[in-house]
């Protein structure tokens, strides 16, 4: 055994170091090996449109709350008590905004990656999307980060650097690049005690940063599954005219650093009319939602009946407006938002919509929120001018 050195075991050393770093920063997860036979496994694969699955689950904004994230997946019958995938061939869409407001951002990214690999082995899919907070963080806009969120990235950078140092000692492995390259030693207007943490977060999440490249570059920004189009904020006609697949490809290339390590986001991801910021269809008052613009957009996407979006917290829970052509699924479940009770949207193959909720007022009713028999009983919760709840269709 004395002839075994790093020179003839570089790949084993690299794999061991990567596993050590992953285990240390993910809260103790060992990621299953990805299915190398899957056509979706390649880093350059972008799929914008999927056929109708037998069961489709949509999950709203998670915002750094790992506990609530697990509750949502468990409530939908997607994971067991050991957090293992039991969703079979279900397709799941997480509509973005994993980052900010909570303390477990990296842990959720690893959790979702673990579930992606487990789902793949049973014919299921977990598709993650970009929200405005992913875009903001890639651009180093950290207005909504928590102190513990900063600490999580600081710890990641320390472990990542240790791993890089170990790899640099092994002949046969390329010397890792400095993740802090090009980042100022002192960030303006940042207290001294947070300087290293801010630099670590920039290093991880900027275009071509290790966390951005590994996790966020897998996200799509707009997605069509069957007769539903998913987007974090909302779509306008000019987004569709520009090209949905083109948007996904350009955002992926930006995250991967092909436009430069400090390049701004594409213009359709910035500003109030962008895909990830739009609120035209999310107003609390149904009468203030632009149903005309929505109908115009849906008419330009063949076969699509509804738009499903997150971004704007719906204090009344998941609901629909514009004759249920706009479905809003951000219930503010994170403790960093309004600490809302987890809810998810289920779409069966026959286009029936159902809300799965942990709200004890409704979870034993067998239906989501209001139906013909319950309207009077719960009317006080939903004023007449409030958004209409999604009707349950068996």
Automatic annotation (TrEMBL):
Gene3D superfamilies: 3.60.21.10. Residues 55-172 form the Calcineurin-like phosphoesterase domain. PANTHER family: SHEWANELLA-LIKE PROTEIN PHOSPHATASE 2. One of its GO terms (molecular function) is hydrolase activity. Pfam families: Metallophos. InterPro entries: Calcineurin-like_PHP, Metallo-depent_PP-like, MPP_Shelphs. This is Calcineurin-like phosphoesterase domain-containing protein.
């Amino acid at each position: 055994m004395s002839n075994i050195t790093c020179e003839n075991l570089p790949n084993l050393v690299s794999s061991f170091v990567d596993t050590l770093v992953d285990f240390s920063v993910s809260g103790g997860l060992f990621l299953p090996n990805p299915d190398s036979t899957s056509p979706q496994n390649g880093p350059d694969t972008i799929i914008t449109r999927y056929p109708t699955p037998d069961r489709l689950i949509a999950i709203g904004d998670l915002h750094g709350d790992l506990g609530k994230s697990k509750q949502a997946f468990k409530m939908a019958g997607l994971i067991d008590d050991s957090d293992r995938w039991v969703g079979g061939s279900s397709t799941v869409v997480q509509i973005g905004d994993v980052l900010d407001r909570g303390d477990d951002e990296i842990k959720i990214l690893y959790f979702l990656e673990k579930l992606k690999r487990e789902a793949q082995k049973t014919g299921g899919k977990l598709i993650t999307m970009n929200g405005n907070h992913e875009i903001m963080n890639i651009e180093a806009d950290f207005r909504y980060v928590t102190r513990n969120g900063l600490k999580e990235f600081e710890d990641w950078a320390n472990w990542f650097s240790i791993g890089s140092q170990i790899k640099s000692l092994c002949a046969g492995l390329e010397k890792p690049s400095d993740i802090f390259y090009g980042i100022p030693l002192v960030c303006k207007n940042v207290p001294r005690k947070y300087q290293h943490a801010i630099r670590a977060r920039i290093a991880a999440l900027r275009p071509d940063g290790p966390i951005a490249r590994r996790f966020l570059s897998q996200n799509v920004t707009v997605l069509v599954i069957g007769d539903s189009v998913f987007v974090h904020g909302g779509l306008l006609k000019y987004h569709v005219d520009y090209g949905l697949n083109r948007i996904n490809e350009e955002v992926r290339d930006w995250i991967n650093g092909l436009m430069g390590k400090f390049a701004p986001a594409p213009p359709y991801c910035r500003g109030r009319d962008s895909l990830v910021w739009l609120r035209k269809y999310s107003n609390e008052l149904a009468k203030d939602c632009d149903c005309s613009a929505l109908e115009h957009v849906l008419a330009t996407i063949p076969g699509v009946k509804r738009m499903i979006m997150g971004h704007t917290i719906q204090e009344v829970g998941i609901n629909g407006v514009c004759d249920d052509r706009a479905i809003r699924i951000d219930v503010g479940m994170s403790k960093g938002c309004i600490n809302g009770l987890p809810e998810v949207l289920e779409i069966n193959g026959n286009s029936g919509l159902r809300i799965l909720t942990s709200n004890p007022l409704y979870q034993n009713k067998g239906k989501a929120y209001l139906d013909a028999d319950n309207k009077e009983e719960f009317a006080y919760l939903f004023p007449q001018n409030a958004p209409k709840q999604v009707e349950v269709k068996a």
